[in-house]
């Protein structure tokens, strides 16, 4: 390597142990909780209701209309639906998840015409983008995908035919086939049902209907302003249509979902018990779906449970394609450096979880995502610190102290509390708080307990529980596996080995040094250029080089008086046990310990002010014994004991002179 080389100053990280497997009694702790049902708010009844736990049920979600890139409003929907699915499945349910792709629509036809592209080609292109977004957000893919174009002949046309046969639909010449709301209401009176399930309240409905009446170009031809198109006749300039007994055309929007649900349900012989979508679909889309299905089956009820997810707002307005105030999912996910622990998708997921109910609207801002990122870093930081601690702990059994029992019980309580919150209408905010509580309490425990003297089980349980809680709500490996090594052997646990790491550091130093030397000789503009290259080099080390070796280096904000030069100072977590957990000589590998001659020259009362302890403590008692750590906190009783032993050793050293 030109310009630099490395050598090992002293043995570091020599005591490594693989994380011991949980013993049987601890594994029981994770599997012993009884299966409880997920209680979810039902938009149809306005009540919290339990979802079934057994197999043989299905859930249908209205999927995207694929004509443009998806934005963060869609992303919130996808992520919350994914969390709903994971939580429901965790109760023992194994539902079939069906999602439709709307690939026939006015907007698709208009966008294709603008691009001189066929509507099918355009729809496929954006469908691919949708799958990429879904994967990047770590959302599970549906069990079954239904495309509208693939169901027109087999499912949608026969469905409309039956509605026409049952006098629930009528022909408007030159326009299409319409659903007959008045005819439906007449029949449904006898079956204790009526049009308008899921529709807004009476006043709001009148307002909507009035608006519809004003806007509608077909209002004159329809029998009732609430009637809606089941089949739209082909327009002269359109070339995207199917043959039917009424004439060439294409299905209306609402009919596709009712017909495809019927098709999948009868093919698999599985009833649909949940229907989901964004809150804007409640009326008219879902209201009309219910009317069509009740008319088709001639009964006054259909899918029992309706789940609706609230809007995402930005600057006071709903984020939408039509308002042109959107941020695409691709932009959110590409706008960050990618490293092992950096994960904008997980930051976004944590934000979705921690905002108020999934049913309420939320306001997006970069600042809020940044806050979520900081919270996720707190979780990740604990996992990395704890794994390092556990690698230094010895595996033989040790007696538990009150502190150990207390951590174990705290983790159990928070796990149960978090789970209860999720099962109670997906209470994500409290769930996030419980995960953070475990991380904070675990970090406190880490700072007060030494890996040599403390049993490993309480911390092992804390780490495993936190990982399980993260996995349950769908965080990716960047978060759930933080701190875990990809290779595990005695000689090297760093990906690529310690030699590779030290080579990289030596190379980094060479770059920084040569830029600094260049800056000494040149004018001001070039200094700026060199400085920006230097900062880039610092970022590359943090974001690319170290993460590729399984090492996380995270910049932390510090108080002004601590650092006059920069805004942040780096803290190297992975593979280094936090300073407070180990005797000093083990965690300062780049600081040479004092020689025994140098030690002998230190008077007893200055022992904690010199050598390896210099700068570690803020205050001392009259004998020179530390009372405050350098951050101003009290020296814990455990550390006091440890330091007393060190002092005794030094006293005996001095006595020998
Ligand atoms: Zn739908």
Automatic annotation (TrEMBL):
Q: What Pfam families does the annotation carry?
A: tRNA-synt_1e
Q: What is its EC number?
A: 6.1.1.16
One Gene Ontology cellular component: cytoplasm
Q: What class of enzyme is it?
A: ligase
Which residues fall in a coiled-coil region?
517-544
InterPro entries recorded: Cys-tRNA-ligase, Cys-tRNA/MSH_ligase, Rossmann-like_a/b/a_fold, tRNA-synt_1_cat_dom
> Recorded GO terms, molecular function?
ATP binding; cysteine-tRNA ligase activity; metal ion binding
Which residues does the UniProt record annotate as the domain tRNA synthetases class I catalytic? 56-373
- Which coenzymes or cofactors are required? Zn(2+)
SUPFAM superfamilies (alphabetical): Nucleotidylyl transferase
One of its GO biological process terms is: cysteinyl-tRNA aminoacylation
Q: Which UniProt keywords apply?
A: Aminoacyl-tRNA synthetase, ATP-binding, Coiled coil, Ligase, Metal-binding, Nucleotide-binding, Protein biosynthesis, Zinc
Q: Show which residues constitute the signal peptide.
A: none
**What family does the Swiss-Prot or TrEMBL record give for this protein?**
Belongs to the class-I aminoacyl-tRNA synthetase family.
* UniProt-recorded name of the protein: cysteine--tRNA ligase
Q: Which organism is it from?
A: Fistulifera solaris
